[in-house]
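Q: For a teaching session next week I want to show students how multiple molecules come together into a single three-dimensional assembly. I've collected the sequence lines for a complex. Could you give me the predicted structure tokens for the whole thing so I can convert them for display?
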Amino acid sequence: MSSRLSILYDTIRWEEKALFDAAKTKGVDAKMVDCKNLFVNLDKSKEDFGTVIQRCVSYYRSLHSTAALEGKGVNVINSLNTSIFAGNKLFTHMLLVKHGIPTPFSAVAFSEDAALGLLEKRGYPMVLKPTIGSWGRMIALLKDHDSAQGIMETRERMYPIYQVYYLEEFVNRPPRDIRAIMIEDRVVAAIYRYSGDGQWKTNMALGGRAEECKITKELEDVCVKAKNAVQGQIVGIDLMESKEKGLVVHEINNTTEYKNTVRVTGVDIPALMIDYAIKSRK
Amino acid sequence: MKCPECDANINPPKDSMEGEIITCPDCGASFELTKGSSGFELKPAQTVGEDWGQ
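A: Of course. Below is the structure for the complete assembly, covering every listed component.
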């Protein structure tokens, strides 16, 4: 079988190599496309990419290349809508709330003073997150007024996105979260991510460790709803096990990493992604 | 090939691809593999961007 498929990247990680290898193994005519070398005429001319699996690690490069290609009629996985919704924690949160999907309490303030006022009213601790960002960067656990003020003063001198103060409750949970990989309407694999030594964040990029997580009906039901809320096709859904609320979704990743999930579960996620991409051709 | 930073030997794995990031085993500097006229060449890799992630 021969099909046209492009893997759009800006950095080749294990994930991108595994995707390309899976395509080769299946006899799929796939090519690697370096987004850094890409230029796109923004008109109605035809593009010859086939289906594109979007894998750029840069948020802005990913978002804008998806917009350009999808706008010209190219089938991009995930879509522009998913990139917009899942790429921003506040946008994701509002969609989760709208669809009745359990998610941690969150609030937003648009100045340092308003954020400090919110914290005084709501109480400490809370978690301050950039609305756009990943790998646990710039996420701060605010334990008291002085630390909150110090962190916010620093953010006041940064790019304006950091003056959108998105605050999330510090969820009472075991020292782990769950990463579930969804392809179409199925959780194909899931892992627990445990915090690394001296860390409260569970990101693998910060030295956390992974264990297989059993896929229950409850987990799958929540994940399907969350994926649909952001119009996703292939996404990584992050959940916490709140002692009060049960499973809560706190993040959806539209260019999800899955190396550790494959390593721990043995599920051939790249092969399943290629199968889905071929099936979804328009 | 030689590390441009410390001159140590860098041997990319056989299955390396253009665009892949490799790290010098001696000095830890990261490089992107690019295709040159005589095989792979090394280009300093972009450090992690502010908007990088998943």
